[in-house]
Write a structure and sequence with these properties.
The protein has 96 residues and is of the alpha+beta class. Helix content is 35%, strand content 29%. The chain has one domain: Ribosomal protein L28/L24 (Ribosomal Protein L24e, Chain: T), CATH 2.30.170. The protein has three helices and four strands. It has a two-stranded antiparallel sheet.
Length: 96
């Protein structure tokens, strides 16, 4: 399982660990990933995703999973999240 947020695409970053003597060695900065269950109101079911804590705050701020997916860019989403987005768009078009 990759260390990548399924909604925002946030992944690991590379940097330096700097010692007191100012020596620099490589290190990784890993995203704060959480396994969460989010509910889609349009689909009427819950979805398990592995997302970052920052993405979880953004989902809450935008008003839920459906609103987040409708506003998200397709190239940032994982294949699973992109499939959920297609289902949400299809269901939204059917109800409108």
């Amino acid at each position: 399982m990759s260390r990548r947020c399924e909604l925002t695409g946030k992944t690991r970053q590379i940097g330096h660990r700097v010692s007191h003597s100012n020596r620099k060695t490589k290190r990784r900065f890993l995203p704060n990933l959480l396994n969460v269950t989010l509910t889609s109101e349009l689909l009427g079911r819950s979805v398990r995703l592995r997302i970052s804590a920052n993405a979880l705050k953004t989902v809450d701020h935008r008003g839920g999973l459906d609103a987040f997916l409708l506003a998200a860019k397709d190239n940032e989403l994982s294949p699973r999240a992109l499939d959920i987005k297609r289902q949400v768009v299809k269901k939204r078009a059917a109800t409108a």
